């Protein structure tokens, strides 16, 4: 347990991605997209179906409103398919940005061999984290991708929804093939449990509909990398200050998008808001390779 007077809360501010790191992000992104046949996971999954234009427009409207905590029920497979087909590649790029930033600049983020993607959906965050780690380790990505149990002791894709677990399992089977046995698929509600300090939790937009008066702080005691709307990351920061039970550091990354990737990402630029919680967090940006504004 962290003593109240030892808990730190920091902000690294807005960080603009320079051309070198933009290239590295886009290299990883392009490899993953090719490995998936330039389809999203639900497009490759046999049980998904196409929604009507009206259904898509209604969902996109609710997603935009989600920043004010409008609830969307992703337990519906058709709803999740629409979301995945619209936002998978944009979120993939965001998660690659965060993964590259942390694994490039803070060595201990490359040493975790127990990693869990919480509320994984299509498994996008874990996919980005692993591919970024492999790229940094070998300097390139090609051929068959192998996850060695020597590097990763325990990898978990966690989602309470069976359909989303099936989608992520199919996507990971396509990319990792012979090493898919190293990945565990779980339907536990981990957000109601106490965080395991030996595990790195990846939380991509999974906390959006979590109310701040829940016992979520028990989970955040574990090491978490959170990507969410800025309103939610600020809310979690406030919770950290109030509870004094875990440390936190927030930052935002901004990247331009090359013209050849604008169509799959559906944007000319990406900004991602992130927060790290846990017993220890980065506290300064003095040595960062990324260009801070």
CATH superfamily: Vaccinia Virus protein VP39
Percent helix:
25-40%
Overall tally of structural domains: 1
- How far is the N terminus from the C terminus? 35 Å
SSE series: EHHHHEHEHEEHEHEHEE
Can you tell me the CATH class?
A: Alpha Beta
Oligomer: single chain
Taken as a percent bin, the fraction of beta residues is: 15-25%
Topology at a glance:
Blueprint: E1 9-16, H1 19-35, H2 41-44, H3 53-65, H4 77-105, E2 114-118, H5 124-138, E3 154-158, H6 162-176, E4 183-186, E5 200-204, H7 216-220, E6 223-227, H8 230-243, E7 247-256, H9 262-265, E8 269-278, E9 291-292
Parallel strand pairs: 1-7, 2-3, 2-5, 3-4, 5-6
Antiparallel strand pairs: 1-9, 6-8, 7-8
Helix pairs in contact: 1-4, 1-5, 4-5
Care to describe what's here?
The chain has 293 residues and is of the alpha/beta class. 40% of the residues lie in helices and 18% in strands. It has a single domain (4-282), classed as 3-Layer(aba) Sandwich (Rossmann fold), CATH 3.40.50.150. The protein contains nine helices and nine strands. It has a nine-stranded mixed beta sheet, sandwiched between helices.
List keywords for this structure.
293 residues, alpha/beta, Rossmann fold, nine-stranded mixed sheet, 9 helices, 9 strands, 40% helix, 18% strand, disordered N terminus
What's this, in brief?
With 293 residues, this protein is of the alpha/beta class. 40% of the residues lie in helices and 18% in strands. It has helices spanning 19-35, 41-44, 53-65, 77-105, 124-138, 162-176, 216-220, 230-243, 262-265; strands spanning 9-16, 114-118, 154-158, 183-186, 200-204, 223-227, 247-256, 269-278, 291-292.
């Amino acid at each position: 347990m962290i003593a109240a007077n030892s808990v730190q809360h920091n902000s690294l501010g807005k960080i603009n991605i320079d051309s070198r790191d933009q290239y590295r992000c886009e290299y990883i992104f392009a490899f993953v997209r090719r490995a998936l046949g330039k389809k999203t996971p639900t497009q490759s999954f046999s049980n998904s179906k196409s929604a009507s234009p009206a259904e898509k427009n209604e969902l996109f409207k609710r997603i935009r409103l989600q920043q004010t905590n409008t609830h969307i029920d992703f337990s519906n497979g058709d709803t999740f398919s629409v979301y995945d087909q619209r936002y998978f590649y944009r979120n993939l790029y965001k998660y690659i940005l965060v993964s590259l930033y942390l694994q490039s600049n803070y060595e201990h983020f490359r040493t975790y061999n127990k990693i869990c993607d919480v509320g994984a959906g299509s498994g996008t965050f874990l996919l980005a984290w692993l591919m970024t780690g492999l790229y940094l380790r070998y300097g390139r990505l090609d051929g068959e991708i192998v996850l060695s149990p020597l590097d990763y002791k325990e990898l978990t894709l966690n989602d309470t929804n069976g359909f989303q677990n099936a989608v992520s399992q199919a996507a990971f089977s396509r990319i990792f093939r012979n090493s898919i046995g190293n990945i565990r698929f779980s339907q536990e509600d981990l957000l109601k449990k106490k965080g395991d300090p030996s595990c790195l939790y990846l939380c991509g937009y999974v906390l959006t509909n979590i109310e701040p008066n829940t016992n979520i702080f028990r989970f955040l005691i574990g090491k978490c990398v959170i990507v969410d709307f800025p309103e939610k990351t600020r809310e979690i920061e406030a919770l950290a200050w109030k509870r004094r039970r875990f440390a936190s550091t927030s930052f935002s990354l901004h990247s331009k998008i090359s013209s050849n990737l604008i169509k799959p990402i559906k944007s000319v630029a990406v900004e991602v808001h992130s927060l790290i919680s846990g017993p220890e967090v980065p506290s300064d940006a003095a040595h960062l390779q990324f260009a801070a504004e």
